């Protein structure tokens, strides 16, 4: 080891238990760290970063019609009818009263397809 570290180790060996406790508290405060130990060593119950990321990935999406260009309202209306399966009246209500949900609990691929269809005819869509 390096001489500086050896010197610190030798100094630490001379500390009383109370002084060592105070040193730990000071280190935690000064450096903003915690010396708490997690006693749960069961690795199955402690998710790794990769496991946490996989668990957080969304699998269901909601597509919301957020805006419609007034000059392209009819084209958007036709696409909305096709996507939702609603009649003319219900589809017109969605197009006239944005923001409105077009579809819920769908896959990412389906949401992206809907977004492309609506944006191709002049509407704006948000995927959540």
Low-confidence stretches: none
By CATH, the superfamily of the largest domain comes out as: Ribosomal protein L7/L12, C-terminal domain/Adaptor protein ClpS
Terminal Cα span: 54 Å
**Shape-level CATH architecture of the largest domain:** 2-Layer Sandwich
Total helical segments = 6
Largest sheet: 3 strands, antiparallel
Give the integer mean of the pLDDT values. 82
User: Helix and strand string, N-terminal first?
Assistant: HHHEHHEHE
What is the gyration radius calculated from CA atoms?
30 Å
Tally the beta strands: 3
Helix content: 40-55%
Strands of the widest sheet, in order across it, are: 2-1-3
- CATH class designation of the largest domain: Alpha Beta
The CATH topology of the largest domain, please?
Answer: Ribosomal Protein L30, Chain: A
Specify the structural class. Answer: alpha+beta
User: How many domain regions?
Assistant: 2
Description:
This protein has a three-stranded antiparallel β-sheet, with helices on one face. The model has no long low-confidence stretch (mean pLDDT 82). It is an alpha+beta fold. 53% of the residues lie in helices and 16% in strands. The radius of gyration is 30 Å and the shape is rod-shaped. The protein folds into two domains: 1-35; 61-127, Ribosomal protein L7/L12, C-terminal domain/Adaptor protein ClpS (Ribosomal Protein L30, Chain: A, 2-Layer Sandwich), CATH 3.30.1390. The two termini are 54 Å apart. It has helices spanning 3-13, 17-31, 49-56, 73-84, 88-96, 108-120, and strands at 61-68, 100-106, 123-127. It is built from six helices and three strands. The longest helix is centred in the N-terminal third of the chain and has 15 residues, at 17-31. α4 (73-84) packs across α5.
């Amino acid at each position: 080891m390096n001489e500086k570290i050896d010197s610190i180790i030798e100094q630490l060996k001379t500390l009383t238990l109370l002084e060592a406790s105070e040193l730990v508290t000071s280190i935690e405060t000064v450096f903003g760290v915690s010396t708490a130990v997690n006693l749960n060593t069961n690795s199955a119950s402690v998710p790794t970063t990769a496991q946490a990321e996989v668990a957080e990935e969304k699998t269901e999406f909601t597509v919301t019609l957020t805006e419609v260009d007034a000059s392209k309202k009819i084209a958007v209306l036709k696409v909305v009818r096709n996507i939702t399966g609603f009649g003319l009246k219900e589809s017109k209500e969605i197009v006239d009263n944005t923001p409105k949900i077009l579809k819920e609990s769908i896959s990412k691929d389906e949401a992206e397809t809907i977004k492309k269809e609506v944006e191709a005819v002049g509407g704006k869509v948000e995927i959540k």
